[in-house]
Design a protein that fits this description.
305 residues; alpha/beta; Rossmann fold; seven-stranded parallel β-sheet; two-stranded parallel ribbon; 10 helices; 13 strands; 38% helix; globular
């Protein structure tokens, strides 16, 4: 089995990815602030901002592929901590890219649909980015640093994801669930569109792209359906038996935060879909698969849950 290093392995996507990857790879899962405990995974702790620690981790793990998930990955924290966003999303990415290029290691970098301003929607890889938030700007700069360093890299822009979490790092659906269970109002944007992506699809797509695509390529990975947050919330509530009447429709301009994510950052994932062995799910299929997944984890090494 190939050796891989996963940064940010205790995060939402990183944790789901590592659960699957342990069945297909020799995995070193790296975390920083939250210790990682997954059977069959070599768990390490290091700071991706430290050149000394990055070099040591690469020397010890000797990975053939690095999946780089570590980031300041939310919009609001990025606005409040610009320096940290730059350190984690730009400087650390540049450092890791340089070391991977020197060692001939394939680097798979997870970026975001929020590199776009949301004025168009259905964005292709060839469309010009124009991020609105510090998070989007720093992730785009991370992309640029990787290109400048050269080597064997893939950049994967991900849509907003949902699915099982580890109780430490969650997704927006977890926030909804907590409010539904408390019986309190669930405010959701009616005028903000994304291609919400089931996290197990994200995991499988990243692995298949890493294994079957040429280096130096950019890919968009989104769910098979463009929808707004209200529509997603209603589908989620129906599947899990929550009261849909708790959902309150609001505009992205009402709370002073939604505009930073743009009105329509939906992705065209047709380039990615041509390579994948499975269809990227729409929200109904994705939510139902999530609900049916035993324990919220993949059941076998094929990635089928």
């Amino acid at each position: 089995m190939k050796r891989i290093l996963v940064t940010g392995a205790s995060g939402f996507l990183g944790w789901n990815f590592t659960l699957w990857a342990r069945n297909a790879y020799q995995v070193t899962g790296a975390a920083f602030s939250h210790a990682l405990e997954i059977e069959g995974v070599n768990a390490v702790m290091f700071d991706v901002r430290s050149q000394k620690e990055v070099i040591a981790a690469l020397s010890d793990a000797r990975p053939q592929i690095v999946f780089h998930f570590a980031a300041l990955s939310r919009v609001e924290p990025g606005e409040k901590a610009r320096g940290l966003a730059i350190d984690l999303n730009v400087t650390a990415t540049d450092l890791l890219a340089a070391q991977c290029a020197q060692r001939g290691i394939r680097l798979v970098y997870v970026s975001t649909d929020l590199v776009f301003d949301g004025t168009g929607g259905g964005y292709r890889e060839t469309d010009a980015p124009n991020p609105l938030s510090i998070y989007g700007k720093t992730k785009l700069e991370g992309e640029q640093r990787i290109r400048e360093r050269g080597g064997d890299w893939l950049i994967c822009r991900m849509a907003s994801m949902y699915g099982p979490d580890n109780g430490t790092n969650a997704c927006f659906a977890t926030w909804m669930r907590e409010r539904f269970e408390k019986g309190v109002e669930v405010p959701l944007y009616i005028d903000q569109y994304r291609c919400f992506l089931y996290v197990h699809d994200a995991v499988r797509a990243l692995c298949e792209l890493a294994e079957h695509s040429d280096g130096g390529e950019l890919y968009h990975i989104g769910g098979g359906q463009r929808t707004n947050r209200v529509e997603y919330g209603k589908a989620y509530a129906s599947a899990f038996g929550y009261d849909k009447s708790l959902i309150r429709e609001i505009s992205i301009h009402q709370d002073g935060k939604g505009h930073l994510r743009g009105a329509d950052c939906s992705l065209d994932s047709s380039k990615t879909q041509e390579i994948l062995s499975f269809p990227l799910k729409g929200i109904q299929q994705g939510i139902e698969r999530w609900k049916a997944a035993a324990g919220g984890a993949f059941s076998d090494s094929t990635g089928k849950d």
